[in-house]
């Protein structure tokens, strides 16, 4: 009985956590913007002197443009630069992430501007000192005040806040995506990053949005091929950049919760088996205690299957009682886990029903042997038993 | 017309490594409406004989025909159906379900007939009334006296309207006065046409029957009609008293 309770509770918690985690990952993938490929320079070869005369084969704005133009299935390719900078307004200051982006970035990340203006190609062309800020940045710098049109200083350069970004929440890697300021790409390069003579339009990363999930692998291969050509890499040379599918990276994170789920399902199945054996025990004792009753029932015309059914029903009733109790405990436990461990849990009625159904199945499975034993009794011997 | 025809019945039990013959060739015919007492010392085979008559056990050898049907070799489910439809059992120790009410106990055989609850209830109540326990329908066996419990058991045996009532030492657990009341009920039922086979080791109880079959060592040693005169002389007063009490 206790085993059944624990087993069913574990099943309920397991499903709640599993579903919760799946929902969270789905939400994160959504927040990333679906169907994204990230291209960044390969760190392994970055500092190597053996690299060719062309210098470090960094990514450039031209690479982004070429990917956007030449590869089928690519919706948009957005180059970006990033840096950590000091943001100041009056006496308030805050350290946060600065990204230099083009308007393409907004469509790649499906990132909307909820107040103010969007960034225009014009802003980039004329290297405007304008900035769009995320909600965290806004809270840290402005509190409740209206940031639109305000001037903030980034590394002592004055910028005008022209827009407020939609909230994105935590990223797959756990950092706050809203602690961010977006400035035009060229502004970022000129004011903060600097240029290199070998590659005057270098960028840190190219974010690519592609059209079809199914062709992600092909698109990635085509990007690799194109970059290979553009950077004149010889066969046998290592890739100088990394092309990765962000949604897949997000899925990796799901494996943690999968381990937890696996653990819980192990607990659940062991408990259910132990509970089932407990029920079998109870039923065997019951059958032994009620041999005379069984004999009498057989004498007045019960068939073997009537007796079998009777004891199976009793076993299933026991198991169901345990199951319902376990489901209640499991629901409470899942909610507790959710609030204590900050773990998203989703309790689904059908999952609870499934768990109770499991308990009933255990009752049938482990109740069968005692019930069959009862049904196989010979009426005279059963009646003769004291 | 013969209700029970038993022909050269033999039955053995496996005890340890060997076989013990409990019945060694019993042939007997019981007609409809007879009231037969089977007597004999313990080990005489009378209980084995009763189990076979009640279709609780199948004979090792020989044939048993109940109401024209050869019972030997039937499937256990068919035997269950025959017990349910044709035979009512009354036991020495009543064998009532302790947690069930008198009414539920009487209903039990009808449950296995797949009868509707309402119909079942009506039949069971009517039968309890016939044994004088209509007002005890809601009581559990523990709340009833021994005689009342045995009357509940009789109602349970009769609720299916069987052809044959088998009573195995029905008065064995009762005091003699209550035993007489039970026998009065049997006499009345027999008067209404019910065939009764009664196993007992008490001569006075056997004397209530119309015919006494004596067993010894697995064989029938005597089969004699009871002289009505003798019985009425001995027990008439008792009997009518008991009978009236029950009514």
TrEMBL record, chain A:
Parts of the chain that traverse the membrane: 262-287, 308-337, 343-369
InterPro entries, sorted: ABC3_permease_C, MacB_PCD, Macrolide_Exporter_MacB
Primary location: membrane
Pfam families according to UniProt: FtsX, MacB_PCD
One GO molecular-function entry: transmembrane transporter activity
Location of the protein in the cell: Cell membrane
UniProt keyword list: Cell membrane, Membrane, Transmembrane, Transmembrane helix
Topology within the bilayer: Multi-pass membrane protein
Chain ranges of the MacB-like periplasmic core domain: 1-226
ABC3 transporter permease C-terminal domain span: 267-379
Entry's Gene Ontology cellular component terms: plasma membrane
UniProt family annotation: Belongs to the ABC-4 integral membrane protein family.
Protein name: Putative ABC transport system permease protein
Organism field: Mesorhizobium tianshanense
TrEMBL record, chain B:
SUPFAM superfamilies xref list: P-loop containing nucleoside triphosphate hydrolases
Keywords per UniProt: ATP-binding, Cell inner membrane, Cell membrane, Membrane, Nucleotide-binding, Translocase, Transport
tRNA-binding among keywords: no
GO MF annotation terms: ATP binding; ATP hydrolysis activity; transmembrane transporter activity
Residue intervals of the ABC transporter domain: 7-242
Keyword flag ATP-binding: yes
Pfam families given in the database record: ABC_tran
Gene Ontology cellular component terms for the protein in this record: membrane protein complex; plasma membrane
Positions of transmembrane segments: none
Family under the similarity heading: Belongs to the ABC transporter superfamily. Macrolide exporter (TC 3.A.1.122) family.
Identification of the protein by name: Putative ABC transport system ATP-binding protein
Species assigned in the record: Mesorhizobium tianshanense
């Amino acid at each position: 009985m206790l085993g059944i309770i624990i087993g069913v509770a574990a099943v309920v918690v397991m499903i709640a956590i599993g579903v919760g985690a799946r929902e969270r990952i789905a939400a994160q993938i959504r927040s990333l913007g679906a169907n994204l490929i990230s291209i960044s320079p390969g760190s392994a070869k970055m500092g190597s002197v053996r690299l060719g005369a062309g210098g470090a084969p960094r990514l450039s704005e031209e690479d982004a443009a070429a990917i956007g133009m030449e590869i089928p299935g690519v919706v948009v390719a957005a180059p970006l630069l990033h840096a950590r900078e000091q943001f100041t307004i009056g006496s308030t200051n805050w350290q946060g992430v600065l990204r230099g982006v083009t308007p393409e970035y907004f469509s790649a990340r499906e990132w909307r501007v909820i107040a103010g203006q969007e960034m225009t190609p014009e802003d980039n062309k004329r290297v405007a000192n304008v900035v769009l800020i995320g909600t965290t940045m806004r809270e840290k710098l402005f509190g409740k005040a209206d940031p639109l049109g305000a001037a903030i200083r980034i590394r002592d350069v004055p910028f005008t806040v022209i827009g407020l970004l939609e909230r994105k929440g935590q990223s797959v890697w756990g950092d706050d995506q809203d602690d961010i300021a977006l400035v035009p790409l060229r502004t970022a390069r000129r004011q903060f990053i600097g240029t290199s003579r070998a590659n005057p339009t270098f960028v840190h990363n190219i974010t690519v949005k592609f059209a079809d999930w199914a062709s992600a692998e092909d698109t990635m291969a085509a990007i690799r091929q194109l970059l290979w050509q553009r950077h004149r890499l010889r066969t046998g040379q290592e890739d100088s950049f990394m092309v990765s599918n962000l949604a897949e990276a997000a899925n990796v994170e799901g494996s943690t919760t999968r381990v937890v789920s696996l653990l819980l399902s192990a607990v659940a199945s062991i408990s259910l088996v132990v509970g089932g054996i407990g029920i079998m025990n109870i039923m065997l004792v019951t059958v032994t205690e009620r041999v005379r009753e069984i004999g009498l029932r057989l004498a007045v015309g019960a068939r073997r299957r009537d007796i079998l059914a009777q004891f199976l029903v009793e076993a299933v009733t026991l198991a169901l009682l345990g199951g319902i109790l376990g489901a209640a405990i499991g629901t409470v436990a899942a909610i507790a886990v959710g609030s204590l461990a900050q773990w998203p849990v989703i309790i689904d009625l059908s999952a609870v029903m499934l768990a109770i159904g499991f308990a009933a199945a255990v009752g049938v499975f482990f109740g069968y042997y005692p019930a069959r034993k009862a049904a196989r009794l010979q009426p005279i011997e059963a009646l003769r038993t004291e | 017309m013969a209700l029970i025809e038993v022909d050269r019945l033999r039955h053995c039990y496996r005890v340890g490594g060997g076989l013990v013959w409990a019945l060694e060739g019993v042939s007997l015919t019981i007609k409809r409406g007879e009231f037969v007492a089977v007597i004999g010392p313990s080990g005489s085979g009378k209980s084995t004989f009763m189990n076979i008559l009640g279709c609780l056990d199948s004979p090792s050898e020989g044939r048993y025909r109940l109401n024209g049907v050869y019972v030997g070799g039937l499937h256990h489910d068919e035997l269950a159906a025959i017990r349910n439809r044709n035979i009512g059992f009354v036991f020495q120790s009543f064998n009532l379900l302790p947690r069930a009410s008198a009414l539920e106990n009487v209903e039990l055989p009808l449950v296995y007939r797949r009868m509707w609850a309402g119909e079942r209830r009506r039949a069971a109540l009517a039968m309890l009334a016939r044994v004088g326990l209509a007002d005890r329908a809601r009581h559990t066996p523990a709340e009833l006296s021994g005689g009342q419990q045995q009357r509940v058991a009789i109602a349970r045996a009769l609720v299916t309207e069987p052809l044959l009532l088998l009573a195995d030492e029905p008065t064995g657990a009762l005091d003699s006065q209550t035993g007489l009341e039970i026998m009065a009920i049997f006499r009345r039922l027999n008067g209404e046409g019910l065939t009764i086979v009664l196993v007992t080791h008490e001569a006075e109880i056997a004397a209530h029957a119309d015919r006494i079959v004596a067993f010894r060592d697995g064989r029938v040693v005597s089969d004699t009609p009871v002289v009505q005169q003798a019985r009425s002389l001995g027990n008439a007063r008792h009997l009518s008293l008991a009978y009236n009490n029950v009514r």
